[in-house]
Amino acid sequence: MAEKSFETTSQACCSTSSESSPILALPMDTPLRKVLSRISGFASSWGKKTVTAPRGRRIFHRDVEQDEFQNGSAHCLSSYYSVFVARLAIMVMLAILIGLLTVLTWHFTRVYTTKSLNTLAYGLRYELLQRPILRMWNVLNSTSEITTAQVKLSEYVIKRYSKPTNQAELIELYQMMKDITWALFASHKALNAITINYRNGFVQAFHRDHRSNNTFYIYSDLANYSISDTQSSQQGWNDQFIHGNESAIWYRQPLDPVTGEKQGKPSQIPPEDLINIAGPSQVPDGVASWHVAVSKYTDSPLLSAALPVRDASNRSIVAIVGVTTALYSVGQLMKELVEVHGGYIYLTSQEGYLLATSTNTPLLNNTANGPKLMMATNSEDRVIQMGAQWLQKTYGNKFPPGHVVHVEKANLGGQHYYIDSFFLNLKRLPMVGVIIIPRKYIMGKVDERALKTLVILISASVCILVIGCVCILILTNGVSKEMKLRAELISHLDARRRAEASSNYKSQFLANMSHELRTPMAAVIGLLDILICDDCLTNEQYAMVTQIRKCSTALLRLLNNILDLSKVESGKLVLEEAEFDLGRELEGLVDMFSVQCINHNVETVLDLSDDIPKVVRGDSARVVQVFANLISNSIKFTTSGHIILRGWCENPIVSGDSGKLSPDQKNPLSALKTKLKQHGNHMKKASKKDNKMILWFEVDDTGCGIDPSKWESVFESFEQADPSTTRTHGGTGLGLCIVRTLVNKMGGEIKVVKKNGQGTLMRLFLLLSTPADGIEQQRRIDFAKHGVAVILALHGSMGRLIMSKWLSKNGVPTLEASEWNELTQILHELFHARTTNSGFDTHYSLAKPLRSKVQTLQDMKNPVYIIVVDLGLLDLSTDIWKEQLNFLDKFSGQVKFAWMLNHDTSNAIKMELRRKGHILMVNKPLYKAKMLHILEAVVKESYVEPQNGSPNGTKGTSKQGDSHECLEIDSSQFETCSSDDSDISEMTGANSASSVGVGEQLKEGTVLKSGPPTLRNCLVEFTRLGLEVNNLRTEEDQCNGRPKLHDTKDVKCENPDSSEQPSVRSNAKDRDNSYTTNKAANEQKTLEGLRILLAEDTPVLQRVATIMLEKMGAVVVAVGDGVQAVEALNCDLDGDENRTNRLQTEICDSPPYDLILMDCQMPMMDGYEATKAIRKSEERTGWHIPIVALTAHAMSSDKEKCLQVGMDAYLTKPIDYKLMVSTILSLTKRSP
Amino acid sequence: MDLVKLQRQLVDYKASLYHECVLDEQFTQLQQLQDENNPDFVVEVVSLFFEDSERLLNELTKALEQQSIDFKRVDAHVHQLKGSSSSIGAQRVQKSCIAFRNYCEEQNVEGCLACLQQVRLEYSLVKTKLEYMFQLEQQILSSGGSIPI
After folding, report:
1. Å from A1198 to nearest chain B CA?
2. Which of A277, A620, A755, A879 has its CA 20 to 30 A from that of A330?
3. What does the angle CA A178 – CA A184 – CA A187 come to, to the nearest 5 degrees?
């Protein structure tokens, strides 16, 4: 029952989903399985719905990690459903358990009780019925006994009086018989009557009327009987004789029931009042018989038995004895039984006539002919009647053998009864006993209780089920909550992973884009460089191209920044460990930026303390990048003033030194230092071993400054201190972010530090290791010993101040002048004061401190004066500078001039300076290394001079007395010499280097333009050659006219020998054949001796390319298509092979052609196919002929394709002459 | 005086050609390639270009007149024409060829025909201009002058 109800509820809840579930179409065995399948179908269909939803969403995302996510979500969902299913399963199990329990309880309480009760009831019923039957049996027995006794007595008496011969004897006999019979009758109270019917028709009978409690003696009139009659009428002795004997007169005499005394006169009775007299008809065959009779004197049927009395010879029947017993006592017993036990009992004959019942209803029908036996079905008692009818209806006449019927549930008139019947098989009187007991008498309580028990059981189980379900829900709630949390966690993880992936894709995309864009940008810049060198540009064009060049550089820098950032973000940035000269790198950087700064009217100063190690290990490009970014950032925001790059080494011994250099920053620095101490301490142990040093740097500018609240955030990516800066200054805000990540990567820190005055002060430290062999001792000339004095006539006050401090620290007395007048004053003071002409003194009165300084200088013995003059001090706008120069010339004998040139100083001025013998020229800005070189040069010169000429050319200063010679110290020179490779190959470095290079080219260009035409031509070629060899090395090649004498260079433009040198350097392989030839010819025949196969179908192009190549000395074989190209190559290969076979000794390792130029689109066989074929055939020989693709498709995919099929390089049409040559050279160099 | 005038005219004419984008620097390169070994290099190459282009133009016309146009073939022809025109620096022809190829890829017959017309026009323009230039050069040479670069 419980299951059923559960099923219905679950069906109800599943009904909505059941339609959509296809599983339900399957046939199911049990309802439980159906339910389960529905649940699973429900769950799966639900699951499908929810699973497909995110899948649809994911299509938009195109997530690569789709599978992973799917697994995760599936897992989460499955866990969710598993909880659901588990709950249901537990509930169902509980329901089954409780249902089973209920059923079992029901079964045991109900069925077994019922069974035992039934057994008991059966026994009871049997017993109940058995007793009246026994009584009946007793009645029958006693009746038969009495009958037998009467017969025996009668026989005995009749034998004694055998053959009565007279009336007296006969009367005596009858008297005797009467006495005997009375004795018997009186001894048996239960007897109703005893009759003796003699052969002669005489009847003697005793009758007891139970209702009136009277006893009668009934006899017939003796008068009509005779002894003789007896014999004669033997044949006609029958019943009719008795009843029909109208003639006979019957008498009835009441008797005392106890004594048998006669109590009255015999009265004649009518024949209808006669009792039953047993006649010969009852013993037709002479044996005893039974039958049921009725009499009007009793209510109950009578049982009468009859036996014949035979004569002595036992041949004939002389009399018939009949005994009648009322069945009243059986009915009485039944009543008594029923009173105790309830129910109904009745006895019927086999025919269905009622013999006895337990009720008081009459058993006889009073008809006109006297009472008749009644059928049980006609009984007046309703229950007996219905029972009999039910039995008859159920069994009809076909009773089971023995008439034994046990029915437990017979519905009689709306009530249930037990009906049992028994069969009593008496001879000639079979009887059936039936007992009807209402069910409720026996089972009434049981049935009622069973119903109550059932109700209680069901309600209890339902209660338990409900409670159990609630318990399950409560118990599993925790689990499901946890599951939900887990699912949520998983989804969050997925979301995070997805977000990370998308961010990754973004940066990946940016990186890729930057990378892809960088390549064409590099090409653009290279081409612009070439274009700038072109001599046929007008001034406007030149300006425009320069502008484009600048913009391209800016764009490239931005791309580089993005690339760097994404590199750092993805953790792919690996710092290389290489030794580099930190000082030189920084000097180069300052040189580079000073160019930019001069336009801005900003002074760039490099202030490195002397304790900074010369060589450190680290990633030079990245270090330079850090400072480049910082300086460019400073320049951006500084409109006037200065930018100082300070550097010192954290070393306890020299820390005081650095403090001296930057006294005002001492205090905040110490705070930072203490903060650093903690992690510096444990770092120190490591640094001892690795020789690590903490290098401190500051970038100090006088720009607009940064708001203190933004000091941290400026280092975030795309973060700018002021949003308006993008508008006014441009930039993306990536620079500082890169700086910080790089600095952190190098184990340092960067922060903005509070500064006195306007501007920003960025301070950082880097952890760099120095080479294991220790800090090399700096070669230093003791300038004090040489008596050198320096007059700094410089514009920039900051640079001047720092320089003079440094010089005086090294024992070189200095004087400072910031403008022309000051300089002249000092000069006058120094020299004219001594030469007595003191007319100026009143005019040029010096300030006191300066004068004292001048005097200390004057005190020096034979000093070597060096005057560092900023060209900016001269008035260049008009022609006054020539006057000023002439003025200075007057002192040329006493002092040495070193000129500070601007990057844009016009060549005329330079020429003029050279003409006047001013050979010491350096570019701005002035920093220590430059100063050192100036000093060294001067000191050496001063040594050389007394010796009248230098011993060799390497010192190369004064040997050439020619006025066109000059000694030019260009620090960028040795900078590039030292680290140009790493610098230029690295794109960031290339920017700076090439921008410097551009400046120099421009400078050279102006020289060349103004020079004689021959010189110009040769230099144009020169330039071109440099570009051909290596586009990026333009700078070096520009300058390679100067021999590398560690820091000084000779430029002798007219000397063909000196211009020979670059070609020797750049084209070492051509050395053998190009030494003697003209330089131009040498340049043009760069491809001398190369054999080139040209596969090109367009005749025009074929011709042009052929001429181009032939002009450069190459041997060209031109073919029209790919097939011909392959053939040309193969026949030569075969030829070679044959030769090889013939001449074993000859080592033939050179392919027939040095290079193949292959057009991609050709008839018959295109370039790709041809290349494949060639590469295939090459496998035999092991050669690799460089194949250069020529194509008009200017797309990178074509390039990919070209390289894929085995080509080595790629040229686009129209053929760029220079590009082609450089490509060919680079490829043929590989294969000698 | 006449010679100087002629020379000046030639220089101006060349400048105008560059200015009108009829020619580009590729032509300059061609001229630079010409030396005493190949005195008539430019003329040789240009006449080669004329021959080739006329052949190609005829082929193109034929190809485009057909019922079912073999665009691959047309494309190959245009590609060739583009290559050769770019090699002599006939910039405008080259540009028209690029447009032509785009239409070819789209298989746009109308566009192709229009482009063919355009290419033909540009080609004839370049041809007349160059022929005139050579004429000028001849004149200068015949009157004993040298050709200014």
Report:
1. 15
2. A277
3. 135
